[in-house]
Amino acid sequence: MPLRLRPLVFACASALALPLLLLGPEREAHGVPCAASVEEARRHMDRGLELYDKVQFRLAAAEFDAAYQAQPFSASLCNAAMAYERALDFKSAIDRYRSFLSAEPNPPDLVRIKTVLAWLEAQSAAQQRARASESDGGAPDGTAPLLAEAPDGGAPDGAATPRVIFELPDGGATPASDPATPPPPAVEIRSQVVVESDPPGAPLTVYARKPGAAPFVAGAASPGWQKVISGQKTPHDVSLAAGEYHIVLDAFRDLKRSETDLELKPGRVYAFKANLSQGAFLGFLRVTSPIEGARIHVDDPPPFAKGTWGRAPHGDLLEPGDHRVWIEATGYETRMREVRVERGETVEVIAPLERVQYGFLVVDGNAEDVRVNVDGVAHGAYSTLGEPLKIRLPAGPHKIELDASERKTFSGEVIVPRGQEVAVHGRLAFTPPRSNAVLSGTLAVGAAVGAAVLFRQPSYELHEGLDFPGLPRFGPTGTQPWFKVGGFVSLGVSGLLVLATGYSLLNDPNPPSRAQIDKPREIDAAPAAKSSPAPARTKAGIRLDGVAPEVCLQGGGLGLRGSF
What we know:
By secondary structure, the protein is an alpha+beta fold. It has four domains: 9-153, Serine Threonine Protein Phosphatase 5, Tetratricopeptide repeat, CATH 1.25.40; 283-350, Immunoglobulin-like; 357-432 and 511-533, Sandwich (Immunoglobulin-like), CATH 2.60.40; 443-507 and 538-563, no CATH class. The protein has seven helices and 28 strands. The strands form eight sheets. Strands 16, 19, 22, 25 and 26 form a five-stranded mixed sheet that branches. A four-stranded mixed sheet has the order 1-8-2-5. It is elongated, with a radius of gyration of 47 Å. Mean pLDDT is 75; it is low at 1-30, 139-179, 527-545 and 551-555.
């Protein structure tokens, strides 16, 4: 497998300078950095470089300090020193430069850094003399102490001084100790290069390309290329200024030599890893998507038998050549991209995903058995003993009906979102009880029948003597006034009962059924709480145990047995 190139953006960010004790030189040099800490350092470095370009030097320095705390790369120390220098905080700049040289004693631009460090020490001494003079009421000769400007005319935060990269050949002039001496050219913003190998322990050499030099030729003299790193073994990390470099892992044991060119940009981290048994470079593929956690598959078509290659955002090494990449997420259309990965290069794939054209309706209710119809089509029923009913539907508006025994039907419209689900909780009200209407209707009929019977009854009179077998002897009188009175009373009662029956049929004391529709949620999100079961209904009214006609000597009617 090839030497693996993994460029990771490494720039600057934070808010307050960290104590120097936290920035000491006791860094764990040449270890394999933790991916999570590198990512945190990258965020701080990104922010710091942005603030540096905006001439907010003190804030930029604090971000560089925070980057070093996240991952102790020496480039963060050097960049923080530059920011403090531009902010005219010479003491902090000196501390960072010294910590940088402790972590990296022999950088390629050592002479330049020592020149700047000596100039800063002179400036710091001048600052201290100025403060002492101010506390004594002025300078001994009556003149104000003279302080030189920071490199490139640097000014405190808020000035409009642009950042300039100075070119100074190694072997610069000896720094003057006079604080009025013009500042030396500034040190450049640095990047970090991390080189690993499998197995570790490979001899490492790094060459820097000078302006106008021809491309590096392996195994031959390469004029114009300066050796800046040698005698180190992997894993190793070093800070370098922006420019063109050639990295070589020499053959050792029975393993092959690996090498690659690298063009460094300021404020980044470049991570290499080589499998020396093959001696070739791998490429690096990074996939990002607006849908965080989207599943990535490489050269593994559906149904994705190999499992996920990673979850967005994700990057890893790949063999050079053509590859097919699938990105999928629940509720989104699967997207496929074809990419070509070159040796030693990074390919960035940004995969925007579109939602699918369907969604889900998740239905439950407060009844034991809720029947669900959508657009006039039955889709099953929800039971309180089971899970909510989940129905896949085309995205858009749909008419839904919820029905249950002894409950009022709910009918309404719900919009099914694309690639999401929406929960519908039925709140079905009871239908009004009809037992009172049945009872009053039965009584009305009985009263009407009784009235008809009473109207047809003749009046009787008791005669003297006894009929066989000893009963009193009755005879018609031809008049029936009391039966007529009873008939009218029964007829009036029947009319009242008819009115009561109509009222019971038309009156509905219960509210209409309704449905609670939740906001759309992702399909794999946790389900919302089910509807609470409805409390047991208490039926009110009159219980009728029996109805029977009755006739006696004084009249007739209906006998009722029941309870309230």
